[in-house]
Design a protein that fits this description.
By secondary structure, the chain is mainly α. The chain has one domain. The protein has one helix at about 1-15. The radius of gyration is 16 Å and the shape is elongated.
């Protein structure tokens, strides 16, 4: 997966030693949640 390759490249480039998160933890939301005045009041 592309995200896995990027994570590995950045780990090498910056000398990171931690274990990367599993790719199953990443997702993309394709539905808009809208723009509202109270958006940040709801804790999102």
């Amino acid at each position: 997966m592309r995200i896995e390759r990027l994570a590995q490249r950045l780990r090498v480039e910056y000398g990171l030693k931690g274990k990367p998160l599993p790719t199953k933890n990443f997702h993309v939301t394709l539905h808009s949640i809208g723009i509202h005045d109270r958006f940040f009041e709801c804790g999102v």
